[in-house]
């Protein structure tokens, strides 16, 4: 099937694995396709990992793109109207589109970050480099969003004793039962977008496990909900709660014509920048799924859409 030059760049990007912690090869590809008239710098985040800044001229606008993807393979496939692959919209389609947009834009800055899907290590390390307005590239169906939900991610560790399953060790010593009790109580709270991720530690059906672990996240819509959740978690004593991320919702940080002020349900690197918007190609409902894909027509439209947004923020 015939593909365009822009599509070929995306397909090449999709072939380069870049799940969190393994972004190096893809970062090298980004350095390769950025136009030669940009000043490019690497910013070490941790051993073997780095962010990239690329600047041309003197602009107050920064396009911010995370380079990592979630794990899980999505076979690359091209149909009449779609391109499938892990990162097609989150976030390689946006990266390729933004770089392509430099053909239409004059002065502009880029920040390419690592670790967004796990701990935001890249954004945390380089947030002070962005000294203007940030366009945080994420799939929003080309809608300009100025607010977002917060995120609280945490691990639960439940400890007990290892024993034969025929014995009654009591709730205090039964790690799995304590875990299930805690999870059930959390579900009753009706917090916004509470998600229970992996639960680990079981050994066998006839063994009472000594330790059970679970990873969870919740996305508070308001600062009040954020405070309520943090207070609730801090009061839990029966199991151990380890907070991984606790980042407040971001309310409207900039006024721009046509923007939607209602917060997006997901969390993005917008939280780390004083002024900015979330914007990009693709539907968030397809991100992280087994059928992640980008519409080919949207990919071709994206550079001009990004160029228009940069122009409006440069005024």
Automatic annotation (TrEMBL):
Leader sequence residues: none
UniProt keyword list: Hydrolase, Metal-binding, Zinc
GO terms for MF: hydrolase activity; metal ion binding
Domain Peptidase M20 dimerisation: 147-235
UniProt cofactor(s): Zn(2+)
Xref: InterPro entries: Bact_exopeptidase_dim_dom, Peptidase_M20, Peptidase_M20_dimer, Peptidase_M20A
Gene3D superfamilies: 3.30.70.360, Zn peptidases
Any single Pfam family the record assigns to this protein: Peptidase_M20
UniProt family annotation: Belongs to the peptidase M20A family.
Protein name (Swiss-Prot/TrEMBL): Peptidase M20
Organism of this sequence: Candidatus Yanofskybacteria bacterium GW2011_GWD1_39_16
